[in-house]
Design goal:
By secondary structure, the chain is an alpha+beta fold. It has helices spanning 2-11, 16-25, 80-85, 106-115, 119-140, 145-155, 159-162, 165-172, 176-193, and strands at 27-31, 36-38, 46-52, 54-61, 64-72, 76-77, 92-95, 99-105. 51% of the residues lie in helices and 23% in strands. A hairpin with a 2-residue loop joins strand 4 and strand 5 (64-72).
Length: 194
C-alpha cells in the first residue's frame, strides 16, 4: 500500500486523520490471471489502485471483442461510466496477470471527499492525469495502422511483451494480420538503426 500513499503524498501530503481514515477503509485484493474483476452488466462500486499486475477493459461490439484500455501497476482503475453514474457497466474488466489491488468503495471514497475536503485536490489531479489519456486513445483510433502502432510504441511499449498480439490488435482497432505486419515493419526499422 506504500505505493498508493506515495502517489497521494506526491500530490500533497495527506493529513494524519485522512491517512488513518483511508487505511481503515482500503482493502487489499488479489486476482489471478484471467479473473474477472467486473462483469459487463454489473454496476461498479469500487475504485482500485493497481500495485502489481495488468488488467484490460473489453467490450463486445458487433459480435467482436474490443479491448478499450490497459492499466498496470501504479494506475488507478475503474469502470468510469458505471462507477460515476451508477449504471450497469458496458465493459468487462479482466486480469491479464496475477494482480494485487488496494480498493475502496464508492461510498467510502465520497465520504472521504466530504469529511476531508483536502482530498478533493487528489481527486482533481488524478482525474487530470487520466482524462487526457482517454482523449489520446480516442484520437489514436482515428489514425492509420502504422500511426496506431507508432503511438503504441511511444506510449506503452511494454505492452508488446506483456499482452497477446490479438489483444493489442483489438486495442488498436486493426486486424491481427495488420498488427503483425506493422510489428514486423517496426522491428525491421529498429534493426536497421543499429
Amino acid at each position: 500500500m506504500e505505493d498508493l500513499f506515495r502517489l497521494f503524498d506526491a500530490i500533497r501530503p495527506l493529513s494524519p486523520e485522512l491517512k488513518t481514515y483511508l487505511l481503515s477503509m482500503l482493502i487489499s485484493m488479489e486476482f489471478k490471471r484471467k479473473d474477472i474483476i467486473l462483469q459487463s452488466g454489473q454496476t461498479a462500486n469500487r475504485i482500485y489502485f493497481i500495485e502489481k499486475g495488468l488488467v484490460r477493459s473489453v467490450r463486445f461490439e458487433k459480435g467482436r471483442e474490443r479491448t478499450a484500455w490497459f492499466m498496470k501497476e501504479g494506475d488507478v482503475m475503474l469502470s468510469v461510466e458505471s462507477f460515476f453514474n451508477q449504471t450497469p457497466s458496458l465493459e468487462t474488466i479482466e486480469a491479464l496477470e496475477d494482480c494485487l489491488f488496494h480498493s475502496i468503495s464508492r461510498e467510502q471514497l465520497y465520504m472521504a471527499y466530504e469529511r476531508y475536503p483536502e482530498f478533493n485536490l487528489h481527486r482533481a489531479v488524478i482525474l487530470e492525469k487520466y482524462y487526457p489519456q482517454s482523449e489520446a486513445r480516442a484520437r489514436m483510433r482515428q489514425l492509420n495502422a502504422s500511426e496506431k502502432f507508432e503511438h503504441l510504441m511511444n506510449t506503452q511499449p511494454d505492452l508488446v511483451t506483456r499482452v497477446t498480439d490479438k489483444m493489442l490488435a483489438s486495442f488498436l482497432g486493426v486486424t491481427p494480420g495488420t498488427y503483425s505486419y506493422q510489428k514486423g515493419i517496426f522491428a525491421n526499422r529498429d534493426r536497421k538503426r543499429l
